[in-house]
Design goal:
With about 50 residues, this protein is α+β, with helices and mostly antiparallel strands. It has one domain. The protein contains 2 helices and 2 strands. The longest helix is centred in the last third of the chain and has 10 residues. The chain starts with a strand and ends in an 11-residue tail after the last helix.
Amino acid sequence: MDTPFEAYVTNLGKYNEGRLVGEFLKFPTTTEEVQALLKRIGIDGVRYEWV
């Protein structure tokens, strides 16, 4: 499938702690793909939040 564009999504909290954690997210995407990416980069809604 052709990808019109991508965005690099990172965990800013971990970045501020000195760790670069992130992944490219291809668009179009689904809610499930976004949720899975957030989980993989450590956005848990407790220590690191989605803003």
